[in-house]
Amino acid sequence: MRRRRERLILGISLAAFAGVATMFASLLWYLQRESLSAEERLVGGLAATLGADAEAMILDTRQLLMEFEQLTEPRCSPEHLQRLQQAAIGRKYIRAIGHWRATDRQCGVGFLQAQALRPARADRIYDSGVIAWWPSPQTQVGDVQLFLMRYGDHDVAIDPRDLLDVGPLQQRQAGLWVEGLPFVQFPRDAELPAPRTVPIGLTLDRVRGVAVSRFSREGELAIDIVAIEPLDSFWGRYARSLAVGSGIGLLLLGGFVYGLVRYTRYRLSMGTLLRKAVARGRVRAMYQPVVDLRSRKCVGAEALARWKMDGGDTVPPDEFIPIAEREGLMPEITLAVLSNPLKELRPLLTQEQRLSINLNVSPEDLKAEQFVQTLAERLAASGLPERSIKLEITERALVNTDLARSMIRRLRERGHEVAVDDFGTGFSSLSYLSTFELDWLKIDKSFVDAIGTGAATSHVIVHVIEMARSLGLRTVAEGVETEEQVQWLIEHGVDLGQGFYFSRPLTAEQFTEYVSVKGVA
Ligand code: C2E
Ligand code: CA
Ligand code: CA
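^ thats the input. predicted complex w/ calcium ion below
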Protein backbone atom coordinates (compact mmCIF):
# COMPACT_ATOMS: atom_id res chain seq x y z
CA MET A 1 0.00 0.00 0.00
CA ARG A 2 2.75 2.40 1.01
CA ARG A 3 4.78 1.50 -2.07
CA ARG A 4 1.77 2.16 -4.24
CA ARG A 5 1.20 5.56 -2.68
CA GLU A 6 4.83 6.49 -3.15
CA ARG A 7 4.65 5.45 -6.76
CA LEU A 8 1.52 7.54 -7.13
CA ILE A 9 3.18 10.63 -5.63
CA LEU A 10 6.24 10.08 -7.77
CA GLY A 11 4.00 9.75 -10.81
CA ILE A 12 2.08 12.92 -10.02
CA SER A 13 5.31 14.83 -9.38
CA LEU A 14 6.84 13.59 -12.60
CA ALA A 15 3.70 14.54 -14.48
CA ALA A 16 3.83 18.00 -12.92
CA PHE A 17 7.48 18.42 -13.84
CA ALA A 18 6.83 17.19 -17.34
CA GLY A 19 3.91 19.60 -17.64
CA VAL A 20 5.93 22.57 -16.43
CA ALA A 21 8.88 21.57 -18.61
CA THR A 22 6.63 21.36 -21.66
CA MET A 23 5.20 24.74 -20.81
CA PHE A 24 8.68 26.27 -20.55
CA ALA A 25 9.86 24.58 -23.72
CA SER A 26 6.96 25.93 -25.72
CA LEU A 27 7.40 29.37 -24.18
CA LEU A 28 11.10 29.32 -25.12
CA TRP A 29 10.29 28.14 -28.58
CA TYR A 30 7.75 30.95 -28.97
CA LEU A 31 10.12 33.61 -27.64
CA GLN A 32 12.93 32.36 -29.82
CA ARG A 33 10.77 32.43 -32.91
CA GLU A 34 9.39 35.87 -32.06
CA SER A 35 12.85 37.16 -31.33
CA LEU A 36 14.23 35.91 -34.60
CA SER A 37 11.55 37.53 -36.68
CA ALA A 38 11.85 40.72 -34.62
CA GLU A 39 15.60 40.71 -35.25
CA GLU A 40 15.06 40.32 -38.93
CA ARG A 41 12.80 43.30 -38.87
CA LEU A 42 15.13 45.43 -36.74
CA VAL A 43 18.53 44.77 -38.19
CA GLY A 44 19.42 44.96 -41.80
CA GLY A 45 18.02 48.44 -42.01
CA LEU A 46 21.48 49.69 -41.10
CA ALA A 47 23.21 49.59 -44.49
CA ALA A 48 20.11 50.89 -46.20
CA THR A 49 19.69 53.73 -43.72
CA LEU A 50 23.35 54.69 -43.85
CA GLY A 51 23.36 54.47 -47.64
CA ALA A 52 20.27 56.64 -48.00
CA ASP A 53 21.76 59.24 -45.62
CA ALA A 54 25.13 59.32 -47.38
CA GLU A 55 23.48 59.61 -50.76
CA ALA A 56 21.23 62.41 -49.55
CA MET A 57 24.21 64.34 -48.19
CA ILE A 58 26.14 64.01 -51.41
CA LEU A 59 23.16 65.03 -53.55
CA ASP A 60 22.49 67.92 -51.18
CA THR A 61 26.08 69.08 -51.51
CA ARG A 62 25.92 68.98 -55.27
CA GLN A 63 22.66 70.92 -55.16
CA LEU A 64 24.29 73.54 -52.90
CA LEU A 65 27.24 73.91 -55.24
CA MET A 66 24.91 74.49 -58.17
CA GLU A 67 23.05 77.12 -56.18
CA PHE A 68 26.27 78.91 -55.24
CA GLU A 69 26.98 79.41 -58.91
CA GLN A 70 23.66 81.23 -59.26
CA LEU A 71 24.45 83.71 -56.47
CA THR A 72 24.35 87.30 -57.62
CA GLU A 73 26.36 88.79 -54.76
CA PRO A 74 29.81 89.99 -55.68
CA ARG A 75 32.29 87.23 -54.92
CA CYS A 76 34.02 87.45 -51.59
CA SER A 77 31.75 90.36 -50.50
CA PRO A 78 30.42 90.09 -46.96
CA GLU A 79 27.02 89.22 -48.42
CA HIS A 80 28.51 86.42 -50.48
CA LEU A 81 30.40 85.03 -47.47
CA GLN A 82 27.27 85.26 -45.37
CA ARG A 83 25.43 83.11 -47.91
CA LEU A 84 28.15 80.50 -47.71
CA GLN A 85 28.13 80.72 -43.91
CA GLN A 86 24.38 80.12 -43.82
CA ALA A 87 24.72 77.02 -45.96
CA ALA A 88 27.56 75.62 -43.87
CA ILE A 89 26.10 76.26 -40.46
CA GLY A 90 23.05 74.05 -40.98
CA ARG A 91 25.03 71.05 -42.27
CA LYS A 92 27.23 69.33 -39.81
CA TYR A 93 29.16 67.41 -42.45
CA ILE A 94 30.35 70.57 -44.13
CA ARG A 95 33.68 71.74 -42.72
CA ALA A 96 34.32 74.56 -45.14
CA ILE A 97 33.10 76.25 -48.27
CA GLY A 98 35.48 78.09 -50.52
CA HIS A 99 35.41 80.38 -53.53
CA TRP A 100 38.10 79.75 -56.10
CA ARG A 101 39.56 81.32 -59.07
CA ALA A 102 41.28 78.63 -61.08
CA THR A 103 43.54 76.89 -58.56
CA ASP A 104 43.54 79.67 -55.99
CA ARG A 105 41.14 79.88 -53.12
CA GLN A 106 40.00 83.48 -52.93
CA CYS A 107 37.84 83.39 -49.84
CA GLY A 108 35.50 81.15 -47.93
CA VAL A 109 34.02 80.08 -44.63
CA GLY A 110 35.33 77.39 -42.28
CA PHE A 111 39.04 76.98 -42.01
CA LEU A 112 41.22 79.94 -42.87
CA GLN A 113 42.40 80.88 -46.28
CA ALA A 114 45.98 80.25 -45.37
CA GLN A 115 45.13 76.69 -44.55
CA ALA A 116 43.27 76.24 -47.78
CA LEU A 117 43.84 72.91 -49.37
CA ARG A 118 45.37 72.84 -52.75
CA PRO A 119 45.34 69.16 -53.61
CA ALA A 120 47.09 68.38 -56.81
CA ARG A 121 44.96 66.29 -59.10
CA ALA A 122 41.23 65.69 -58.79
CA ASP A 123 40.17 62.07 -58.49
CA ARG A 124 37.05 62.43 -60.57
CA ILE A 125 35.60 64.84 -62.98
CA TYR A 126 31.98 64.13 -63.73
CA ASP A 127 29.91 64.91 -66.78
CA SER A 128 27.85 67.26 -64.66
CA GLY A 129 30.96 69.32 -64.07
CA VAL A 130 31.43 68.24 -60.51
CA ILE A 131 35.01 67.56 -59.53
CA ALA A 132 35.84 65.36 -56.54
CA TRP A 133 38.84 64.65 -54.36
CA TRP A 134 38.71 61.49 -52.26
CA PRO A 135 39.84 61.62 -48.66
CA SER A 136 43.62 61.15 -48.75
CA PRO A 137 46.77 62.59 -47.17
CA GLN A 138 46.68 65.42 -49.68
CA THR A 139 43.21 66.45 -48.38
CA GLN A 140 44.19 66.10 -44.74
CA VAL A 141 43.63 68.93 -42.28
CA GLY A 142 44.57 68.18 -38.71
CA ASP A 143 43.89 64.50 -38.46
CA VAL A 144 40.89 64.47 -40.75
CA GLN A 145 41.14 63.54 -44.39
CA LEU A 146 38.44 65.52 -46.10
CA PHE A 147 36.28 64.80 -49.10
CA LEU A 148 36.15 67.71 -51.48
CA MET A 149 33.54 68.47 -54.11
CA ARG A 150 33.88 71.38 -56.45
CA TYR A 151 31.61 72.83 -59.04
CA GLY A 152 32.37 75.98 -60.91
CA ASP A 153 34.03 78.44 -58.57
CA HIS A 154 32.91 76.91 -55.31
CA ASP A 155 34.00 73.89 -53.34
CA VAL A 156 32.75 72.14 -50.25
CA ALA A 157 34.96 70.25 -47.80
CA ILE A 158 33.12 67.37 -46.23
CA ASP A 159 34.15 65.37 -43.15
CA PRO A 160 33.53 61.85 -44.45
CA ARG A 161 33.02 60.53 -40.91
CA ASP A 162 29.77 62.44 -40.92
CA LEU A 163 28.66 60.65 -44.04
CA LEU A 164 28.57 57.47 -42.00
CA ASP A 165 26.76 58.11 -38.75
CA VAL A 166 26.63 54.62 -37.34
CA GLY A 167 25.08 55.76 -34.11
CA PRO A 168 25.98 55.12 -30.53
CA LEU A 169 25.54 51.34 -30.53
CA GLN A 170 28.79 49.56 -29.84
CA GLN A 171 29.81 46.60 -31.93
CA ARG A 172 28.35 48.04 -35.08
CA GLN A 173 30.69 48.24 -38.02
CA ALA A 174 30.12 49.94 -41.32
CA GLY A 175 32.06 51.12 -44.30
CA LEU A 176 31.32 53.52 -47.15
CA TRP A 177 32.71 52.99 -50.62
CA VAL A 178 32.30 55.54 -53.33
CA GLU A 179 33.00 54.46 -56.84
CA GLY A 180 34.26 51.21 -55.40
CA LEU A 181 36.96 52.99 -53.41
CA PRO A 182 37.04 52.83 -49.61
CA PHE A 183 35.90 56.19 -48.31
CA VAL A 184 35.41 55.89 -44.61
CA GLN A 185 34.70 53.18 -42.14
CA PHE A 186 33.67 52.85 -38.58
CA PRO A 187 35.45 52.01 -36.43
CA ARG A 188 38.68 52.90 -38.16
CA ASP A 189 40.27 49.52 -37.67
CA ALA A 190 37.20 47.53 -38.72
CA GLU A 191 37.88 44.68 -41.09
CA LEU A 192 34.98 44.76 -43.45
CA PRO A 193 34.53 42.55 -46.47
CA ALA A 194 34.72 44.20 -49.88
CA PRO A 195 31.22 45.22 -51.09
CA ARG A 196 31.20 42.99 -54.15
CA THR A 197 31.69 39.92 -51.91
CA VAL A 198 28.55 40.78 -49.95
CA PRO A 199 25.07 40.10 -51.33
CA ILE A 200 22.86 43.14 -51.54
CA GLY A 201 20.32 43.25 -48.76
CA LEU A 202 20.46 41.35 -45.51
CA THR A 203 22.39 38.20 -44.64
CA LEU A 204 22.00 36.71 -41.19
CA ASP A 205 25.05 34.85 -39.97
CA ARG A 206 23.76 33.05 -36.90
CA VAL A 207 27.02 31.23 -36.36
CA ARG A 208 28.92 34.46 -35.83
CA GLY A 209 25.81 36.08 -34.39
CA VAL A 210 25.83 38.99 -36.84
CA ALA A 211 23.67 40.51 -39.50
CA VAL A 212 25.63 41.63 -42.57
CA SER A 213 23.90 44.09 -44.85
CA ARG A 214 24.83 45.89 -48.03
CA PHE A 215 23.41 48.95 -49.71
CA SER A 216 24.40 49.72 -53.25
CA ARG A 217 23.38 52.60 -55.48
CA GLU A 218 24.58 53.32 -58.99
CA GLY A 219 24.38 57.01 -59.60
CA GLU A 220 26.57 59.87 -60.47
CA LEU A 221 28.49 58.78 -57.39
CA ALA A 222 28.16 55.05 -56.97
CA ILE A 223 27.71 54.34 -53.28
CA ASP A 224 28.22 51.09 -51.46
CA ILE A 225 27.68 50.51 -47.78
CA VAL A 226 28.54 47.35 -45.91
CA ALA A 227 27.33 47.18 -42.34
CA ILE A 228 27.74 44.51 -39.70
CA GLU A 229 25.56 44.45 -36.61
CA PRO A 230 25.57 41.94 -33.82
CA LEU A 231 22.33 40.03 -33.65
CA ASP A 232 20.81 40.87 -30.34
CA SER A 233 21.57 37.88 -28.23
CA PHE A 234 18.38 35.95 -27.66
CA TRP A 235 19.33 35.17 -24.11
CA GLY A 236 20.38 38.73 -23.49
CA ARG A 237 17.05 40.07 -24.58
CA TYR A 238 14.89 37.57 -22.74
CA ALA A 239 17.08 36.71 -19.76
CA ARG A 240 14.99 38.85 -17.50
CA SER A 241 11.57 37.61 -18.57
CA LEU A 242 12.88 34.07 -18.51
CA ALA A 243 14.25 34.51 -15.01
CA VAL A 244 10.94 35.92 -13.81
CA GLY A 245 8.96 33.21 -15.65
CA SER A 246 11.13 30.44 -14.30
CA GLY A 247 10.86 31.92 -10.83
CA ILE A 248 7.07 31.93 -10.98
CA GLY A 249 7.05 28.46 -12.54
CA LEU A 250 9.29 27.07 -9.86
CA LEU A 251 7.22 28.76 -7.20
CA LEU A 252 4.03 27.20 -8.58
CA LEU A 253 5.69 23.83 -8.86
CA GLY A 254 7.01 24.20 -5.34
CA GLY A 255 3.53 25.07 -4.16
CA PHE A 256 2.13 22.05 -5.91
CA VAL A 257 4.67 19.69 -4.42
CA TYR A 258 4.21 21.30 -1.01
CA GLY A 259 0.45 20.78 -1.32
CA LEU A 260 0.98 17.19 -2.35
CA VAL A 261 3.24 16.55 0.61
CA ARG A 262 0.76 18.25 2.96
CA TYR A 263 -2.05 16.16 1.51
CA THR A 264 -0.03 12.99 1.95
CA ARG A 265 0.76 13.99 5.52
CA TYR A 266 -2.92 14.61 6.11
CA ARG A 267 -3.76 11.19 4.73
CA LEU A 268 -1.05 9.71 6.88
CA SER A 269 -2.30 11.61 9.90
CA MET A 270 -5.83 10.30 9.23
CA GLY A 271 -4.24 6.87 9.41
CA THR A 272 -2.53 7.76 12.67
CA LEU A 273 -5.74 9.19 14.10
CA LEU A 274 -7.67 6.08 13.12
CA ARG A 275 -5.03 3.84 14.66
CA LYS A 276 -5.37 5.74 17.94
CA ALA A 277 -9.15 5.71 17.72
CA VAL A 278 -9.14 1.91 17.38
CA ALA A 279 -6.77 1.57 20.34
CA ARG A 280 -8.96 3.87 22.47
CA GLY A 281 -12.17 2.08 21.58
CA ARG A 282 -13.57 4.95 19.51
CA VAL A 283 -14.55 2.63 16.71
CA ARG A 284 -18.00 1.51 17.76
CA ALA A 285 -20.76 -0.65 16.35
CA MET A 286 -24.31 0.26 15.42
CA TYR A 287 -26.84 -2.50 14.94
CA GLN A 288 -29.17 -2.68 12.01
CA PRO A 289 -31.95 -5.19 12.68
CA VAL A 290 -32.39 -8.18 10.38
CA VAL A 291 -36.02 -9.38 10.29
CA ASP A 292 -37.99 -12.37 9.13
CA LEU A 293 -39.93 -11.00 6.15
CA ARG A 294 -43.14 -12.97 6.91
CA SER A 295 -43.41 -12.58 10.65
CA ARG A 296 -41.57 -9.24 10.76
CA LYS A 297 -39.90 -10.50 13.89
CA CYS A 298 -36.22 -9.87 14.60
CA VAL A 299 -33.62 -12.51 13.93
CA GLY A 300 -30.62 -10.37 14.80
CA ALA A 301 -28.63 -7.43 13.51
CA GLU A 302 -25.67 -6.45 11.39
CA ALA A 303 -22.90 -4.70 13.30
CA LEU A 304 -21.88 -1.61 11.33
CA ALA A 305 -18.72 0.27 12.22
CA ARG A 306 -18.76 3.94 13.25
CA TRP A 307 -15.79 6.12 14.13
CA LYS A 308 -16.71 8.48 16.92
CA MET A 309 -14.34 11.44 16.70
CA ASP A 310 -13.34 13.40 19.79
CA GLY A 311 -15.34 16.44 18.70
CA GLY A 312 -18.49 14.30 18.63
CA ASP A 313 -18.56 13.84 14.84
CA THR A 314 -19.18 10.39 13.49
CA VAL A 315 -17.19 9.23 10.48
CA PRO A 316 -19.08 6.74 8.31
CA PRO A 317 -17.33 3.52 7.26
CA ASP A 318 -17.30 4.49 3.59
CA GLU A 319 -14.77 7.17 4.59
CA PHE A 320 -12.54 5.43 7.06
CA ILE A 321 -12.53 1.86 5.77
CA PRO A 322 -10.47 2.82 2.69
CA ILE A 323 -7.97 4.47 5.08
CA ALA A 324 -7.93 1.40 7.31
CA GLU A 325 -7.39 -0.83 4.28
CA ARG A 326 -4.50 1.32 3.13
CA GLU A 327 -2.95 1.37 6.58
CA GLY A 328 -3.42 -2.36 7.11
CA LEU A 329 -5.76 -1.66 10.01
CA MET A 330 -8.69 -3.81 8.93
CA PRO A 331 -8.01 -6.78 11.27
CA GLU A 332 -7.99 -4.35 14.23
CA ILE A 333 -11.21 -2.74 13.01
CA THR A 334 -12.95 -6.10 12.76
CA LEU A 335 -11.99 -7.01 16.32
CA ALA A 336 -12.84 -3.51 17.58
CA VAL A 337 -16.33 -3.83 16.08
CA LEU A 338 -16.69 -7.36 17.46
CA SER A 339 -15.83 -6.28 21.00
CA ASN A 340 -18.96 -4.07 21.04
CA PRO A 341 -21.74 -6.68 20.80
CA LEU A 342 -19.74 -9.11 22.94
CA LYS A 343 -19.89 -6.55 25.70
CA GLU A 344 -23.03 -4.44 25.34
CA LEU A 345 -25.33 -7.08 23.80
CA ARG A 346 -24.14 -9.98 25.95
CA PRO A 347 -27.20 -9.93 28.22
CA LEU A 348 -29.59 -9.81 25.25
CA LEU A 349 -27.75 -12.51 23.31
CA THR A 350 -27.56 -14.72 26.38
CA GLN A 351 -31.25 -14.30 27.01
CA GLU A 352 -32.40 -14.62 23.40
CA GLN A 353 -30.27 -17.51 22.15
CA ARG A 354 -31.83 -17.41 18.65
CA LEU A 355 -30.59 -13.85 18.00
CA SER A 356 -27.31 -13.44 16.21
CA ILE A 357 -25.09 -10.53 15.24
CA ASN A 358 -23.57 -10.29 11.76
CA LEU A 359 -19.93 -9.27 11.74
CA ASN A 360 -18.38 -7.89 8.55
CA VAL A 361 -15.13 -9.72 7.90
CA SER A 362 -12.53 -8.01 5.75
CA PRO A 363 -10.47 -9.71 3.03
CA GLU A 364 -7.41 -9.11 5.23
CA ASP A 365 -8.91 -11.21 8.02
CA LEU A 366 -9.30 -14.13 5.66
CA LYS A 367 -5.62 -13.99 4.78
CA ALA A 368 -4.48 -14.39 8.38
CA GLU A 369 -4.60 -17.87 9.90
CA GLN A 370 -4.90 -16.60 13.47
CA PHE A 371 -8.23 -14.88 12.78
CA VAL A 372 -10.21 -18.04 13.57
CA GLN A 373 -8.23 -18.50 16.76
CA THR A 374 -8.62 -14.88 17.90
CA LEU A 375 -12.35 -14.98 17.24
CA ALA A 376 -12.66 -18.15 19.27
CA GLU A 377 -10.75 -16.62 22.19
CA ARG A 378 -12.90 -13.46 22.21
CA LEU A 379 -16.09 -15.51 22.22
CA ALA A 380 -14.81 -17.80 24.92
CA ALA A 381 -13.95 -14.76 27.06
CA SER A 382 -17.48 -13.40 26.67
CA GLY A 383 -19.13 -16.74 27.29
CA LEU A 384 -21.25 -16.49 24.14
CA PRO A 385 -21.64 -19.40 21.74
CA GLU A 386 -20.26 -19.39 18.17
CA ARG A 387 -23.73 -19.21 16.64
CA SER A 388 -24.26 -15.73 18.22
CA ILE A 389 -21.89 -14.33 15.63
CA LYS A 390 -22.51 -14.72 11.90
CA LEU A 391 -19.82 -13.68 9.48
CA GLU A 392 -20.38 -11.57 6.38
CA ILE A 393 -17.76 -12.02 3.72
CA THR A 394 -17.87 -9.87 0.63
CA GLU A 395 -17.79 -11.45 -2.78
CA ARG A 396 -14.55 -9.53 -3.34
CA ALA A 397 -12.87 -11.39 -0.47
CA LEU A 398 -13.69 -14.75 -2.00
CA VAL A 399 -11.61 -14.15 -5.08
CA ASN A 400 -9.32 -17.04 -5.64
CA THR A 401 -7.91 -18.00 -2.34
CA ASP A 402 -7.70 -21.54 -1.10
CA LEU A 403 -6.90 -20.02 2.25
CA ALA A 404 -10.26 -18.22 2.33
CA ARG A 405 -11.95 -21.47 1.40
CA SER A 406 -10.35 -23.39 4.26
CA MET A 407 -10.89 -20.52 6.72
CA ILE A 408 -14.61 -20.51 5.91
CA ARG A 409 -14.71 -24.26 6.43
CA ARG A 410 -13.04 -23.96 9.83
CA LEU A 411 -15.34 -21.10 10.89
CA ARG A 412 -18.39 -23.16 10.00
CA GLU A 413 -17.02 -26.21 11.77
CA ARG A 414 -16.77 -24.08 14.91
CA GLY A 415 -20.46 -23.20 14.60
CA HIS A 416 -20.51 -19.82 12.81
CA GLU A 417 -22.87 -19.25 9.95
CA VAL A 418 -21.31 -17.50 6.95
CA ALA A 419 -22.98 -15.12 4.51
CA VAL A 420 -21.67 -13.88 1.18
CA ASP A 421 -22.14 -10.09 1.20
CA ASP A 422 -22.77 -7.67 -1.65
CA PHE A 423 -23.41 -10.60 -3.93
CA GLY A 424 -23.80 -9.69 -7.59
CA THR A 425 -21.55 -6.63 -7.40
CA GLY A 426 -18.44 -8.67 -8.22
CA PHE A 427 -17.79 -11.16 -10.96
CA SER A 428 -18.38 -14.45 -9.21
CA SER A 429 -20.28 -17.07 -11.08
CA LEU A 430 -22.59 -19.67 -9.69
CA SER A 431 -20.05 -22.42 -10.23
CA TYR A 432 -17.36 -20.40 -8.50
CA LEU A 433 -19.63 -19.67 -5.54
CA SER A 434 -20.41 -23.38 -5.23
CA THR A 435 -16.75 -24.06 -4.35
CA PHE A 436 -17.30 -22.27 -1.02
CA GLU A 437 -19.28 -23.65 1.88
CA LEU A 438 -21.74 -20.90 2.74
CA ASP A 439 -25.02 -20.49 4.60
CA TRP A 440 -26.47 -17.19 3.49
CA LEU A 441 -26.51 -15.01 0.43
CA LYS A 442 -27.07 -11.29 0.98
CA ILE A 443 -28.81 -9.79 -2.04
CA ASP A 444 -27.23 -6.44 -2.69
CA LYS A 445 -29.25 -3.26 -2.25
CA SER A 446 -28.84 -2.38 -5.93
CA PHE A 447 -30.99 -5.42 -6.89
CA VAL A 448 -33.59 -4.65 -4.26
CA ASP A 449 -33.76 -1.06 -5.53
CA ALA A 450 -34.57 -2.36 -8.99
CA ILE A 451 -37.64 -4.31 -7.85
CA GLY A 452 -40.73 -3.13 -9.72
CA THR A 453 -38.83 -0.62 -11.85
CA GLY A 454 -38.55 -2.77 -14.99
CA ALA A 455 -34.81 -2.03 -15.05
CA ALA A 456 -32.50 -4.74 -16.37
CA THR A 457 -31.28 -5.52 -12.86
CA SER A 458 -34.84 -6.32 -11.80
CA HIS A 459 -34.56 -9.56 -13.79
CA VAL A 460 -31.14 -10.35 -12.38
CA ILE A 461 -32.47 -10.57 -8.83
CA VAL A 462 -34.72 -13.47 -9.88
CA HIS A 463 -31.67 -15.35 -11.11
CA VAL A 464 -29.72 -14.52 -7.95
CA ILE A 465 -32.53 -15.95 -5.83
CA GLU A 466 -32.76 -19.08 -7.97
CA MET A 467 -29.02 -19.49 -7.82
CA ALA A 468 -29.00 -19.22 -4.03
CA ARG A 469 -31.75 -21.83 -3.85
CA SER A 470 -29.88 -24.21 -6.14
CA LEU A 471 -26.83 -23.87 -3.89
CA GLY A 472 -28.90 -24.50 -0.80
CA LEU A 473 -28.28 -20.96 0.52
CA ARG A 474 -30.83 -18.98 2.44
CA THR A 475 -31.34 -15.36 1.39
CA VAL A 476 -31.28 -11.96 3.05
CA ALA A 477 -32.32 -8.87 1.11
CA GLU A 478 -30.37 -5.70 1.91
CA GLY A 479 -31.54 -2.11 1.70
CA VAL A 480 -35.26 -2.82 1.84
CA GLU A 481 -37.09 0.49 1.85
CA THR A 482 -40.73 -0.19 0.88
CA GLU A 483 -43.61 -2.53 1.60
CA GLU A 484 -43.81 -3.38 -2.13
CA GLN A 485 -40.28 -4.68 -2.00
CA VAL A 486 -41.18 -6.77 1.07
CA GLN A 487 -44.17 -8.29 -0.75
CA TRP A 488 -42.14 -9.02 -3.86
CA LEU A 489 -39.35 -10.61 -1.82
CA ILE A 490 -41.82 -12.81 0.09
CA GLU A 491 -43.43 -13.93 -3.18
CA HIS A 492 -40.02 -14.90 -4.50
CA GLY A 493 -39.12 -16.91 -1.46
CA VAL A 494 -36.57 -14.59 0.19
CA ASP A 495 -36.26 -15.34 3.90
CA LEU A 496 -34.92 -12.30 5.63
CA GLY A 497 -34.70 -8.56 5.10
CA GLN A 498 -32.70 -5.63 6.33
CA GLY A 499 -33.21 -1.99 5.51
CA PHE A 500 -34.46 1.41 6.52
CA TYR A 501 -38.04 0.16 6.04
CA PHE A 502 -37.55 -1.93 9.16
CA SER A 503 -35.01 0.13 10.97
CA ARG A 504 -31.95 2.30 10.62
CA PRO A 505 -28.79 1.19 12.43
CA LEU A 506 -29.40 1.44 16.19
CA THR A 507 -27.38 1.74 19.38
CA ALA A 508 -27.19 -1.33 21.63
CA GLU A 509 -29.81 0.17 23.87
CA GLN A 510 -32.17 1.02 21.00
CA PHE A 511 -31.66 -2.42 19.47
CA THR A 512 -32.51 -4.12 22.75
CA GLU A 513 -35.68 -2.03 22.89
CA TYR A 514 -36.44 -2.89 19.25
CA VAL A 515 -36.17 -6.59 19.96
CA SER A 516 -38.46 -6.34 22.96
CA VAL A 517 -41.11 -4.54 20.87
CA LYS A 518 -40.90 -6.68 17.72
CA GLY A 519 -40.11 -10.00 19.32
CA VAL A 520 -37.67 -12.67 18.25
CA ALA A 521 -38.42 -14.87 15.26
P1 C2E B 1 -22.77 -3.24 3.91
O1 C2E B 1 -22.06 -4.34 4.63
O2 C2E B 1 -23.46 -3.59 2.66
O3 C2E B 1 -23.71 -2.57 4.95
C1 C2E B 1 -24.96 -2.09 4.64
C2 C2E B 1 -24.91 -0.63 4.44
O4 C2E B 1 -26.13 -0.22 3.86
C3 C2E B 1 -24.81 0.14 5.75
O5 C2E B 1 -24.13 1.37 5.50
C4 C2E B 1 -26.25 0.44 6.07
O6 C2E B 1 -26.41 1.57 6.92
C5 C2E B 1 -26.79 0.70 4.70
N1 C2E B 1 -28.21 0.45 4.61
C6 C2E B 1 -28.95 -0.51 5.27
N2 C2E B 1 -30.23 -0.44 4.91
C7 C2E B 1 -30.35 0.56 4.02
C8 C2E B 1 -31.46 1.11 3.31
O7 C2E B 1 -32.61 0.68 3.43
N3 C2E B 1 -31.18 2.15 2.45
C9 C2E B 1 -29.95 2.64 2.33
N4 C2E B 1 -29.75 3.66 1.49
N5 C2E B 1 -28.86 2.16 2.98
C10 C2E B 1 -29.08 1.11 3.84
P2 C2E B 1 -22.88 1.75 6.34
O8 C2E B 1 -23.09 1.45 7.79
O9 C2E B 1 -22.54 3.12 5.95
O10 C2E B 1 -21.81 0.76 5.83
C11 C2E B 1 -21.30 0.88 4.57
C12 C2E B 1 -20.38 -0.24 4.25
O11 C2E B 1 -19.21 -0.16 5.08
C13 C2E B 1 -20.91 -1.60 4.56
O12 C2E B 1 -21.74 -2.04 3.58
C14 C2E B 1 -19.67 -2.43 4.67
O13 C2E B 1 -19.20 -2.75 3.37
C15 C2E B 1 -18.71 -1.46 5.29
N6 C2E B 1 -18.67 -1.72 6.73
C16 C2E B 1 -19.44 -1.21 7.70
N7 C2E B 1 -19.05 -1.68 8.91
C17 C2E B 1 -18.01 -2.53 8.66
C18 C2E B 1 -17.19 -3.36 9.50
O14 C2E B 1 -17.34 -3.43 10.72
N8 C2E B 1 -16.23 -4.11 8.90
C19 C2E B 1 -16.06 -4.10 7.56
N9 C2E B 1 -15.12 -4.87 7.04
N10 C2E B 1 -16.81 -3.33 6.73
C20 C2E B 1 -17.79 -2.56 7.29
CA1 CA C 1 -22.34 -6.29 5.39
CA1 CA D 1 -23.85 -5.51 1.83
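The CA atoms of residues 377 and 383 lie 10 Å apart.
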